[in-house]
Amino acid sequence: MNIDKLDYQSLIIFESISRHLNAGLVANELGISISSVSRHLGTLRDIFKDVLFIRRAQGFVLSDKAVQLLPYIKQLLHDYQVIKHNHIHFNPLTAKGHFKIYAYNEFTYVINKVINQQILPQAPNLTFEVRTLSSDCSRAIEHGEIDFAVVYENFKDHKIIHEMLSPTEELFLIAKEGHAVFSEEFTLENLCQYDYFAMDNYNDLSKPLIAQLAKQQGIAVNVIGATDNIAALSRHILDSRAISMSCNVFTREFCEMIKGLRTATLPSKLTAHLLKQINVGRRVGNYLISSEINQSTTHHWLKQQLFNNIRDEWYLAMKR
After folding, report:
1. Taking Cα atoms as reference points, which of 157, 138, 144 lies closest to residue 19?
2. How far is Cα 89 from Cα 72, in angstroms, rounded to an integer?
3. CA spacing 20 to 30 A to 46: which of 97, 235, 306, 308?
4. How far apart are CA 153 and CA 89, in angstroms?
5. pLDDT: is 109 or 158 the higher one?
6. How do beta strands 97-103 and 59-62 pair?
């Protein structure tokens, strides 16, 4: 065993293979070629005189030797990152990396805006994928397959680092301009007179908040549909006499740009009753989440940039 050949990049690849069990996913995460992954894996096998990762139809399987080595390699990588983070000056101008960011539909525009206006001018060599969430991303975040996600409070927090961007403090009514709902007091009874079209975000809630509260109080409400797309919601509202609600200021901003739509803030007392229907063991709001796996200096810097700038955009939108 020639331990002198063991380098930092090989350690990174070892750890990444142990999570993904797939060379293609490792190459994608680290921004290198599959042949480079194979070359480093060959070096590792030569150093430790063991196959380490056994090929199977479904992907790699760790050998007994790889299982024994993994905790030591994770510790080495952690110690290296501590030194790098605390004792080496970080220069975003020279930073490199490719990052995947997933978010609910309402946040994707703002994330792209922050990347283009705030992050890339400082770190021009970084590249990004910003995609709309289509399912629970907790497992992909844990494994480092997604670098960051902006989500509501309903997520599994095992091995996930989460920071609240903004609390949910207001709810907004959305309806067609001239709708009768705007001429009445915003009470639960009055709102439930009208068909309701829900802004649904991938089963965060078993049913809309208004339906949960109405059921408790013995009031009927007719939920006629749900969508996770803001543009689709706007069309549904414009094409019917249905109403909807959102807790997101970016959704409200978008709706107010659509001719024929109108929004209004619900009374604080009704909002409090509605938000009490959410019980997930953490404060209700919008969170930036990431895996505890990636501790690189670039990742830390980027996380802080995303957090600060998306939060600032939120509060600017609240003022407007």
Report:
1. 144
2. 27
3. 97
4. 34
5. 109
6. unpaired
**Cβ neighbours of 265 (radius 10 Å):** 12
Contact call for residues 282 and 153 (beta carbons, < 8 A) = yes
Count Cβ atoms within 10 A of the Cβ of residue 70 and give its class: 0-12 exposed, 13-18 middle, 19 or more buried. middle
> CA nearest 274: which of 215, 194, 227?
215
Q: Please, which residues have CB within 8 angstroms of residue 288's CB and are 6 or more apart in sequence?
A: 148, 149, 150, 162, 163, 165, 303, 306, 307, 310
Domains of the chain: 3-87 (1.10.10.10), 92-168+284-319 (3.40.190.10), 172-275 (3.40.190.10)
pLDDT tens digit sequence for 192-221: 999 999 987 656 677 899 999 999 999 999
pLDDT recorded at residue 24:
86
Tell me how far apart the terminal alpha carbons of the chain are, to the nearest angstrom. 65
Measured between alpha carbons, how far is 259 from 261 in angstroms, rounded to an integer? 6
Side-chain half-sphere exposure of 1, counting CA atoms within 13 A: 7
Rounded Cα distance between 18 and 31, Å, is 17
Look up the pTM and report it: 0.73
The helix (run of H) or strand (run of E) holding residue 249 is helix 249-257
Helix (H) or strand (E) holding 223: strand 223-227
- Mean pLDDT score across all residues of the chain: 89
Residue 176, phi then psi, degrees to nearest 5: -70, 145
C-alpha dihedral (84, 85, 89, 94), degrees to nearest 10 = 80
